[in-house]
Amino acid sequence: xxxxNLKRVDLIFGxxxxxxxxxxxxxxxxxxxxxxxxxxxxxxxxxxxxxxPTGLKWxxxxxxxxxxxxxxxxxxxxxxxxxKDREILCRVPRKIFAGMAICGYTIGAKQGFLYLRGEYRYxxxxxxxxxxxYHEHAKKFGLDFTIEIRMGSGAYICGEExxxxxxxxxxxxxxxxxxxxxxxxxxxxxxxxxxxxxxFVTSLMIIRHGAEYYKKLGTQDSRxxxxxxxxxxxxxxxxxxLELGMTVQEFVDDFGDGDTKAVQIGGASGMCVPRKKxxxxxxxxxxxxxxxxxxxxxxxxxxYNILHDYLEFFAEESCGQCTPCRVGCQQLLKGIExxxxxxxxxxxxxxxxxxxxxxxxASKCGLGxxxxxPFTSIVNNFREEIIY
Amino acid sequence: MAKYEVNLKINDxxxxxxxxxxxxxxxxxxxxxxxxxxAHPDLCVAGNCRVxxxxxxxxxxxxxxxxxxxxxxxxxxxxxxxVRTARRHIIELLLSEHNAxxxxxxxxxxxxxxxxxxxxxxxxxxxxxxxxxxNYTIDDFSPSIIKDDSKCIRCQRCVRxxxxxxxxxxxxxxxxxxxxxxxxxxxxxxxxVVCTNCGQxxxxxxxGALVEKNYIDQVWDAIYDEGKHVVVQTAPAVRxxxxxxxxxxxxxxxxxxxxxxxxxxxxxSVLDTDxxxxxxxxxxxxxxxxxxxxxxxxxxxxxxxxxxxxxSPGWIKFQEHKYxxxxxxxxxxxxxxxxxxPLAKTFFAEKKNIKAENIVSVSxxxxxxxxxxxxxxxxxxxGFQDVDYVLTTRELxxxxxxxGIDFEHLEEEKYDSIMGESTGAAVIFGATGxxxxxxxxxxxxIVTGREVPFKNLDIKPVRGFEGVxxxxxxxxxxxxxxxFLEGAELKLAIAHGLANANKxxxxxxxxxxxxxxxxxxxxPGGCLGxxxxxxxxxxxxxxxxxxxxxxxxxxxxxxxxxENPEIVAIYEEFLGEPNSHKAHELLHTHYTKRKxx
Lengths: 388, 597
Known about the structure:
The complex is a heterodimer.
Chain A: H1 22-27, H2 32-42, H3 54-63, E1 70-75, H4 84-91, H5 93-107, E2 111-116, H6 124-141, E3 146-151, H7 161-168, E4 192-196, H8 197-209, H9 211-215, E5 225-232, E6 238-243, H10 248-255, E7 260-265, E8 271-274, E9 293-298, H11 303-317, H12 323-341, H13 348-362, H14 366-370, H15 372-381, H16 383-387
Parallel strand pairs in A: 1-2, 1-4, 2-3, 5-9
Antiparallel strand pairs in A: 5-6, 7-8, 7-9
Chain B: E1 5-10, E2 13-18, H1 23-29, E3 53-56, E4 63-64, E5 75-77, H2 81-96, H3 112-120, E6 138-139, E7 145-148, H4 157-165, E8 172-174, E9 181-183, H5 200-204, E10 210-212, H6 216-224, E11 229-234, H7 255-265, E12 269-272, H8 273-296, E13 307-308, H9 313-322, H10 336-352, E14 359-365, H11 369-375, E15 389-392, H12 393-402, H13 424-427, H14 434-448, E16 468-474, E17 489-496, H15 498-509, E18 517-521, H16 539-554, H17 565-575, H18 581-587
Parallel strand pairs in B: 1-5, 11-12, 11-14, 13-18, 14-15, 17-18
Antiparallel strand pairs in B: 1-2, 3-4, 3-5, 6-7, 7-10, 8-9, 16-17
Helix pairs in contact in B: 2-3, 8-10, 8-14
C-alpha cells in the first residue's frame, strides 16, 4: 500500500489555465539583472541532471558581447527511465515557451529553439498550436523573440548540449571540445543559453512567485522541488513532483512495492543504491543527484541483466569518437559477459572498475564520464549477482 | 587584437605562452613530450583519441592537452599516476580494437600506435580482444588505396584530411558507438566514390588502416624476367623525398644515389620523368598560346579559357567529379608520367630496337593517384598499357632496403639516355607553382625571344606555400608572329591542395575570375607533398623538400625546357613539332564526366 509521507508539490503542472503569458508580461517590466538575481537567489540548478546553477548560466550568456545569441530548450529527453519532460511538453507547453522567452529577454537573444527528441514527433501539432499563441502574445508585448522547433533523430548523444548544437547545424551529433562552453560559443558559434525543459518551467515559476517562495522548498544544497519519473517495480509508476532533500528510504516507503532491493537514481547513467544504503542516501546534490529518473527494482530482478542492458545501451549510443567511451563501453559489456560465463575470473571485475574510473576522467563528454556510475555502483553492491 | 601572455606550470616548470596556446604546445615549449594520435600539424583539432590527456590541479576531469587552451595559473601534470593509468588504459583500449598483427602489417615500423605500444610496454594488456566480435572489411578495390578497417583507430585524421585539406569528403564517419567506422557514401568501395586517389589520408593515417596498393612484387618479377626490358622513370619530387625513408633528413637531394640504386635493383634503363616534364612544357605551352590565339584573334567561342594544367591525376578526377562542365578548360596534355609511357613503348623501343611487348614500364612517383592514372582506359596509346606499374617513393625505398643497398654510401650516377636528359624547369614540377614557372620560362621566350624578366630565371611570385597564388605577366616587344599578344597581360593563378583548387574553381565557374592560365596540384605543397611521399608529413618537412627542389633547379646546367637537347631531338626525329598530329596521338588525352557523389 502506498504511503503518502513525502510532500507533493504542484509547481510545474499547477496554475496552468491562469498562466496566459502573464508571468512573461510582468517579467518584461523587470530588468534582466533583477531576473538573474532572482534566479541566483533561488539556488535553482539545472534540471537536466548536470546541475549547473541556472542563474549563473543566464548571467554568463548575458555578459557575452555578441549581437546574436540563442536560447535553446533541450527537449531531447533520452535518458532511460526519464519521461518527465514529455509530460511537461504535453501538459504545460505554454510555461516552457514563456520561460524561454524570459530567458531570451534576459540574455538579449532574439531567437530560441526547442530541440525535440525524435521519438516525440507526435507532440508537434499541439506544440505548434501553442507556439502560434506564444508568438501572438510576444507580438502584443513588443517582445522580439521567436521560437522554432527542431527535431532530433533518435540519438541519445544529441542530448549532450554540444552534440545537440552539431545536430542542429546539420552535422553528425558528436560532442565538441570544451572550452569554449556554450555560454561563449554554442549554436553556430554564438553565445547560447541551453537549458532543460523543466529548468525553463521552474525558472518561470520562480520569476512568478519569487525566490523566497521557492527557497522554502528543499535543502541548502538542493533547493526547491523536482519532477520525478518513477518507474520499475512500483505500484505508482508515474510523474511525481516532490520536494528535494528526502532519503531514498523515504522515497521507497512512498513508492516501493514493499520488496525494493535497489533504486537506480538518475537513469542508466546514474547511481544504483542498494537497500542497505537507502536510509543514508539523500536524493539531491548532497547525495545522489538525478535528472528525474527513479527506477525501482525488487528482488525478482537480476542486477546482472540490468547492468547488461545499460551497458548495451551505452555501447550502442556512444557517439564513438573518443576512445575511452567507444571502446570502454564495449570492454565493460563484453567483460561482464566473460565473467558471467566463467571465461574471466571474478577478479577481472577489479580491472574493469579501474577501466571505468579512467572512462570517468578521460572521456570527452558526460556520456562516457557517467558510464562508471551504474557500472561501479552495481558491481560493488551486487557483485555476486554479476559473477554467478 | 593583442594576445595576452598566460603563465602556467607544467610539471612544476613555469611556462609563459600566448593566450589560446594549447597545453600540448605549451609543454613542447619546455621540452615535455606528450604523446598524441589524433592530432596532426596539418589538421584541425579533434581531441578524440584522448592519448594526450593530462591532469590539471583542482580539475575533476583529465584534459585533452591537444584541445585545451592554457589559462592563467594552471598547474598541469603530464606524468602523474592518474595520467599514466589513463594513458595506458587508452592505449590498451585502442589495441583491443585493433588488428595488432604487426609483423604482417604494411606499416610495420612506421606506425604511431606501434610506437606508443612499444613505449608503454602494454604486453600485459588483459582486456578482451574485441576483433573477435566484429566483421571488418578490407577494401582493396581502388587501384591506389587499401582501406583496412581492422587497423583503424577512429582518430579521424583521414576524415579531416579529406574534408578540410581536399574538400572531397570521400571518407566520413558512419554509424555510432561500437559500430562506428570510417566509411564512404553508402559504404561503396573506394573506387566507386568521389575519392581522387590523392593519398593524403595515407600520409596522415597513424596506423596501417590506409596504405597504398603496392606493386613491389610485380616489379621484382619483371626485373627477374630475362625476356623483359624494364624501364623506370622517376618523378621530379621523388629525388628530394626518397632520402627520408632511407635514414636521411628531409631536404636531402639524392638524385644521383637514386639513379645508382635503381641500376643496382636491376632496372634495364634508368630514365627520367623530368624529360617528359620538359616535353609537357612544350606541348602545354604551345596549347596555351594556341588557345590564346584562337580566343583573342580568331574569336573562337569553342575554345575555353582559362586553361588548367593536367599533370595531377588527383586533381583531374576531382574536376571530373565536381566541375564536369569545365573539362574543356583542362589542358589536353597528358601528365609527364603518361607522356613518358607511350614514348617508352614507341620512340624508345624503336631507337633501342626492343619489341614494345617486351618493355615493362615502371614509374616511381610521389603519388598514389598515378597508380589510378596508369590504369585509365585512355592510357593505352602505344597499343599496350603505357605505364605498367607505378610505385610510390615509399615503395622504392622498401625495394632498396630489401635489396640490401647501402643507400647513404652509394656513388652518384647519371640517368641513361635517351629520355634521361632534363632541365631545371622539369624538376620544379615537384613544387607548387613549378609548372607555371617552367611554362613561363619557355613561353615567354618563344613569344618575345628574350628570357623571362626575373633574376636568375627565378620567378619568385609563383613560389611558396600560400594556398592560392596569383600573378600577372605583361608581354611586350613580341616577335612578329606573336603580334596578337603585344601588350597582353596574362593573368595566372596557382593552387595546391584540392581545398584551394576548389576555391579557384568556384570563382571560375561563377565567372568571377578572369585568369588565363591556372596551375593546380592536388596535394598540399604540390607533388613534394604527394600521397606517395615518405611519412610523416608536416609544413616544416614540406618546406625543406621545397627548398631542395629549388636548389636542384639552380644546380642544373640547363634550366629551360625548350633547351633540353633530347627534347629538341625528339621533335626533329619523331614528333615533328609541338601539338603535331603525332604528338596529339601519343601525348594528349580526353576526360570523363563523373557524378558528384
